[in-house]
Specification:
By secondary structure, the protein is mostly helical. The chain contains seven helices and two strands. It binds zinc ion.
Length: 164
Amino acid sequence: MIKCVGCGSKLERIAGPTHRYMLSSPACFAKYDEVLAHEYSDPALMRTHRLTVDAFAIQHPGDGTTRQAIQSVGLHLARLGIQVNHLRRLEEANNIMLSLGQYKAELVFLAPPAEFTMTVADVAKFAGTPEHVDAVKAWARSAWADWSQHHDYIIGWAEHHIAA
Ligand SMILES: [Zn+2]
C-alpha cells in the first residue's frame, strides 16, 4: 500500500501515469480516471463532473513550488465554494471560474489541511452506480469543509472580483 502524497488515500502500489502538477499516487490518479470515465459517458453527470474535478484538484495541491498548482487550487477552491454554498446559480459557477482566471496571478499558496475526510478512493467504488452523484456531492462538501481555514480568503477573493 502507498499513501497518496495529495489526499492521503491508502491504495495499492501500481505503476501508471499521474497528473503533471496535481501530484498523487498512480493508484489515486487511476481512481480519478475511473470516476471521470463514467462522467464523460453520461451527459446527466456534467454538473457532478465539475464537483469531481474541483474536489480532486484541491486535494492534490502539490508542494507549493509550482505556480500552476497554486493557481489551480485557488480557482478550483473558489468554484467549489461557490457551488457548495450556493452563492450563485450552478450554471454561473463555471463562467465565474473562467473569468476569475484572469486574476489567478494574485493567488498565493494556501497550506492544505493535514488530512482529508473523504478521497476519490471513497467515491470510485460508486462510479457508474445510482449512488455516483450522492457520493461525489458528499466528497465535494467534505473537501470544501476540510479547507475551512481558507474559506474566508478564497470566497473574499472571488466575491471581490465578481463584484468588480
Ligand atoms: Zn490522492
